[in-house]
């Protein structure tokens, strides 16, 4: 019997090696190589044999093609989530939603099924849970008697055939990492299985005008597990972020072929499932106390303005190397802002431990949060606080200058709505509103407003 030939494939970048090595030389990842069987290649002269085997491609004028946006979209039942998707779930669209374990992906999808089942034929396929487990969740969420179809399968071939024959409007697959094709010898979750299974299901969805939602796992670093090819193939990539133990949860589009990637839907979890937060700013500030190290920041989640509390704690370091810890903000950006504070102001933070927290479990990706972070750190270090009724926003440059923030009017309008009286922000050329107290640089902001 011939010896089975194998190779080792990196699960991060798909580079192959003839033998196992600890570190992938291409992407630098450790312990990502998985052994796979090499398929017999009987077509060594495949290129030569394929000459003359192709068919002429029929082309169309673009004005002859039916536009996808003219088709009726499937509503999720959440207005903000429909906005994130560009108006709802488009027929034949393939959506990938990813988030950490326990954050509520399956709950959200079950609630979408409960709403969409009223007018559409939907199939929920689980490769991780049994029928009884899914039925218990559907009963808790009020989806038990809606006509939702369920199947438990890990075969990508069977799922593709079901899409081809049963005319479902929407198919939900939980999750793509559990699927496998018979023709591929590697285990489920490997690069080749994820790539080929996704491609097979996507082709079936496009051919039959069926919308598909794929659930994806994430790695320890927070990126979507599997090859980057998976994100390139699908039409929409949604990230489900937040604290799985409480606080707000945010769904934002990282990629969207049918709409904007600047929108976000904000949810909170209760006993009846996820629900949209109507006034997140008010909820985030409900328990706030005005002390040193506490700053209210006007930020944006997609196109929605939010007022968020930023807290900082500064203590003397007990060791030679000061500690920097942050929750809800980029650590590298924090280190940069601390360096700017050290260099451009009289604050000496070289021997101080700094802890920064964004209240509510939100993750800030807005550079206009720089000024609020800096003022929170300076406030905690000096033991001084801002006056009541003040919000802060603005980007900080390396020279300590305060740069203009985008969509200033939205931030100001949200602050006024909640009763704030002024905003410390960069000068806005197009607005003469006395609400904004303009500052040119970081040192001016600290001297004038930290009392």
Automatic annotation (TrEMBL):
Short motif RadA KNRFG motif, span: 255-259
Region span, Lon-protease-like: 353-451
Record SUPFAM superfamilies: P-loop containing nucleoside triphosphate hydrolases, Ribosomal protein S5 domain 2-like
Native source species: Candidatus Nanogingivalis gingivitcus
Keyword rRNA processing: no
Family membership noted in the UniProt record: Belongs to the RecA family. RadA subfamily.
Alphabetical list of PROSITE patterns matching this protein: RECA_2
Domain RecA family profile span(s) in chain numbering: 70-218
Transmembrane parts of this sequence: none
Name under which the protein is recorded: DNA repair protein RadA
Role: Plays a role in repairing double-strand DNA breaks, probably involving stabilizing or processing branched DNA or blocked replication forks.
Protein keywords: ATP-binding, DNA damage, DNA repair, DNA-binding, Hydrolase, Metal-binding, Nucleotide-binding, Stress response, Zinc, Zinc-finger
């Amino acid at each position: 019997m011939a010896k089975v030939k194998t190779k080792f494939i990196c699960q991060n970048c798909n580079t192959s090696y003839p033998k196992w090595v600890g570190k992938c030389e291409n992407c630098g990842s450790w312990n990502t190589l998985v052994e796979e069987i090499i398929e017999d290649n009987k077509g060594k002269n495949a290129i030569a044999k394929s000459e003359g085997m192709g068919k002429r491609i029929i082309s169309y004028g673009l004005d002859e093609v039916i536009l996808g946006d003219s088709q009726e979209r499937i509503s999720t039942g959440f207005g903000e989530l429909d906005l994130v998707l560009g108006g709802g779930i488009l027929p034949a669209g393939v959506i990938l939603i990813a988030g950490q374990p326990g954050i509520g992906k399956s709950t959200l999808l079950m609630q979408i099924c409960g709403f969409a089942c009223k007018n559409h034929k939907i199939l929920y396929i689980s490769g991780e849970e049994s029928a009884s487990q899914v039925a218990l969740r559907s009963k808790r969420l009020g989806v038990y008697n809606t006509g939702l179809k369920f199947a438990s399968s890990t075969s990508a071939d069977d799922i593709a055939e079901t899409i081809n024959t049963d005319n479902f409007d929407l198919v939900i697959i939980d999750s793509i990492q559990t699927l496998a094709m018979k023709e591929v010898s590697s285990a489920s979750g490997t690069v080749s299985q994820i790539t080929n299974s996704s491609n097979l299901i996507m082709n079936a969805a496009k051919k039959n005008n069926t919308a598909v939602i794929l659930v994806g796992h994430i790695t320890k670093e927070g990126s979507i597990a599997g090859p980057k090819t998976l994100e390139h193939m699908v039409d929409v990539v949604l990230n489900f972020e937040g604290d799985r133990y409480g606080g707000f949860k945010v769904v934002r589009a990282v990629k969207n072929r049918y709409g904007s990637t600047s929108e976000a839907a904000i949810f909170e979890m209760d006993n009846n499932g996820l629900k949209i937060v109507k006034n997140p700013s008010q909820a985030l500030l409900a328990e706030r106390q005005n002390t040193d190290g506490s700053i209210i920041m006007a930020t944006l989640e997609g196109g929605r303005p939010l007022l968020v509390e930023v807290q900082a704690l500064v203590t003397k370091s007990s060791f030679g190397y000061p500690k920097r810890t942050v929750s809800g903000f980029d650590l590298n950006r924090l280190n940069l802002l601390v360096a700017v504070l050290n260099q451009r102001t009289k604050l000496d933070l070289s021997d101080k431990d700094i802890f920064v927290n964004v209240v509510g479990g939100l993750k800030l990706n807005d550079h206009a949060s720089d000024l609020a972070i800096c003022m929170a750190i300076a406030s905690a270090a000096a033991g001084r606080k801002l006056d009541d009724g003040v919000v802060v926003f603005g980007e900080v440059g390396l020279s300590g200058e305060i740069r203009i923030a985008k969509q200033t009017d939205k931030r100001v309008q949200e602050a006024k709505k909640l009763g704030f009286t002024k905003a410390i922000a960069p000068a806005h050329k197009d607005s003469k509103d006395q609400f904004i107290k303009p500052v040119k640089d970081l040192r001016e902001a600290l001297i004038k407003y930290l009392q």
